[in-house]
Amino acid sequence: MWKTVCLALGIAALASGTSLAEDLPGDPTLGRQLADGVCSACHKVEKGMDEPGRDGAPSFQTIADNPTMTPLAIRFILQSTEKQNMPNLILTADETDDIIAYIRGLHDGR
Ligand code: HEC
Hints:
The chain has a single domain (2-106), classed as Cytochrome Bc1 Complex, Chain D, domain 2 (Orthogonal Bundle), CATH 1.10.760. The chain is 54% helix and 0% strand. The protein has 5 helices and no strands. It has helices at 2-19, 28-39, 60-65, 71-79, 93-106. Helix 2 packs across helix 5 (93-106) and helix 4 crosses helix 5. The longest helix is centred in the N-terminal third of the chain and has 18 residues, at 2-19. The protein is globular, with a radius of gyration of 13 Å. Residues 16-21 have low confidence and may be disordered. The structure holds heme C.
């Protein structure tokens, strides 16, 4: 099961990697694991899931498809202490990069 998921993600990452002008340092596979473990309590983290999660937390697909949610914007949100309904998540710099790579990787140019 995980093998299939990882393989699919790898292909998705490769496919989107070429179409994205961004060259992100993070590892989307690790980002996916973090998203599952840390973010999925509130956000829908799977590709293609559009509906919001707990407390109206936008799905990661919605975030990925939002043109204003650039890697910089996501980084800012994750590091800001001003989040309204989001807990102050303590992520390392690497974890932040991985999550950003995963979220941006969900965007398929729709
Ligand atoms: C306890 C619930 C909760 C957890 C856990 C959580 N979030 Fe959120 N998140 C929210 C809510 C609710 C919002 C909606 C904005 C707000 O009210 O802060 C949000 C908003 C966001 C936004 C901004 C989206 C927008 O369009 O404004 C990003 C990016 C985000 N979360 C990323 C993450 C990531 C990455 C993780 C895991 C590392 C995570 N969140 C974990 C509840 C959560």
